[in-house]
Design the sequence.
């Protein structure tokens, strides 16, 4: 019975750790996308401010 409880606790901790890891990777990807979008936006603004047109 104790072994079964330990196994359940370990499996729930493992699942929580796995979910946190996945969530962390998703957050990193979202931040990278945000930075890329910002760089593109700033590049376009700089290009337009130089009185150029696309």
Sequence:
């Amino acid at each position: 019975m104790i072994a079964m409880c330990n196994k359940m606790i370990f499996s729930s901790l493992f699942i929580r750790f796995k979910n946190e890891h996945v969530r962390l990777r998703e957050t990193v990807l979202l931040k990278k996308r945000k930075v890329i979008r910002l760089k593109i936006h700033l590049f376009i603004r700089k290009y337009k401010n130089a009185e150029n047109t696309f």
User: Anything to note?
Assistant: The radius of gyration is 23 Å. Residues 2-49 form the longest helix (48 residues). Residues 46 and 52 are 9 Å apart (CA to CA). The chain has a mean pLDDT of 79.
